[in-house]
Amino acid sequence: MADPKGFMTTPRQEWARRPVEERVRDWDEVYVPGALLPIISKQADRCMDCGVPFCHEACPLGNLIPEWNDLVAREDWRAASDRLHATNNFPEFTGRLCPAPCEAGCVLAINQPAVTIKNVECAIADRAWEEGFVPARPPERLSGKTVAVIGSGPTGLAAAQQLTRAGHTVAVYEKDDRIGGLMRYGIPSFKMERRHLERRLGQMRAEGTRFRTSMSVGRDVDAAELRTRFDAVVLATGATAWRELPVPGRELEGIYQAMRYLPLSNRVGEGDLAVSPLSAAGRHVVIVGGGDTGADCLGTAVREGAASVTQLDIYAQPEAARDEYAEPWPTYPKIYRLSPAHEEAGELRTAPAAHADARVFAASTLRFSGDEGGHVRALELVEVDERRQPVPGTEQTIPADMVLLALGFSGPDREDGLVEQLGLVLDERGTIARDIGFATNVPGVFAAGDAARGQSLIVWAIAEGRAVAAAVDRYLTGSSQLPAPISPGDKPMRV
């Protein structure tokens, strides 16, 4: 630790956000450009000599957080980049998109605000690219083995990069026309600009990874035939089977799944469309679902110029501080958090009938009602108790001529035929079954990420990609030097 008293003398200071009125007029990242580097060395100095760094345990990647905090405090950016990239293929992604369970596990967080670990990580990653500390690392020799990776989200890309660097010839198959999965078409650019993704893909291409876009395995390519062409196959298709809301009026026009809405707005940013055909402009939008996807819809609808936006969360509003009995340190607590999208909606008063940040907590949808043309016009909701049971007499109706369902995902998409063509066994949750070595019931076929684990965080997705790469490397060569940060049975810290 560079300053033994840093955690006592320096208060927590986070990366400043641009003014709401400014940032909702564009799709750039919400943070003030260049405002992180001037503060980050002192923030890294807050990392204390805790002896047992629980941030390691809280992060599935096993990031060496105290080490690179100390190096940043000393402004040794090259060494910090080396330590960060030793455990994380894509820190510029996690530094922007991960909810930072490491900070919940920070020892300082027992009785003080945690170290800004996520901001430090992002600063290292960005500085590393600026200074040229992350060149392409092609293998010195090829193994002669070939691997197909199906899916180009964070799990697929992490697995592909690890296996390419190990000397295997890797081809990544992506059903969309561009690489990136949800990082491309699911996550709005105000959370992560696409230049970060493109820069990393350029590195991977220079290392030798091959990409096959607009290739849906199961539809465009027979999965069983693909298996015969490669020595191993990694399934990293994600959990894209969205959950439904079976209530009266669901058949009305104007009710869409969030993952139909978000990709179209992202395609506008890619230059494919002038205006999204599902634009929220001028509409009264209601988002059903209180998670990150719902917040992404909220920020997108605000930028598109919605007449109003309201978000429904079936859970009660969390407390501002951790419940030490229900969710003791170092678990990741369910507390009240104000995302940039909620900050924007609150300041702009997008939902006058809702709480200050556009969310209606402890709310469940009863039914939709529409006009004579069959288009949704209103949503009836009811307050629920702690058991999610309706509270009589609390019904209310709010205007809604556009409804977005952000209820999460249940497992891999079954409509493309991949599961059936390979003869894969699914578990009781509907995800791909695998053993302790990430192997499915089909020899040479491995499964990782949300397709097998279930819906999770980006940091777990990258950890899965790194771990499955080690398993595939061992299958192909008999041994492996690749790191395996997690096993299929590992779970986040919880009570």
Please name the defining characteristics of this protein.
single chain, alpha/beta, FAD/NAD(P)-binding domain, 3 domains, 5-stranded parallel beta sheet, 12% strand, metal-binding, oxidoreductase, iron-sulfur
Description of the molecule:
Keywords: Amino-acid biosynthesis, Glutamate biosynthesis, Iron, Iron-sulfur, Metal-binding, Oxidoreductase. Its EC number is 1.4.1.13. This is Glutamate synthase subunit beta. GO terms for molecular function: glutamate synthase (NADPH) activity; iron-sulfur cluster binding; metal ion binding; oxidoreductase activity, acting on the CH-NH2 group of donors, NAD or NADP as acceptor. It is a single chain. The chain contains 19 helices and 13 strands. The protein has 495 residues and is an alpha/beta fold. The protein folds into three domains: 6-131, Fumarate Reductase Iron-sulfur Protein, Chain B, domain 2 (Orthogonal Bundle), CATH 1.10.1060; 146-240 and 410-477, FAD/NAD(P)-binding domain; 245-407, 3-Layer(bba) Sandwich (FAD/NAD(P)-binding domain), CATH 3.50.50. The strands form three sheets. It has a five-stranded parallel sheet with strand order 3-2-1-4-13, with helices on both faces. A five-stranded parallel sheet has the order 5-12-6-7-8. Strands 9-10-11 form a three-stranded antiparallel sheet, with no helix packed on it. Strand 9 (363-370) and strand 10 (376-383) form a beta hairpin. Helix 3 (37-44) crosses helix 5 and helix 7 packs antiparallel against helix 9. The longest helix is centred in the last third of the chain and has 20 residues, at 458-477.
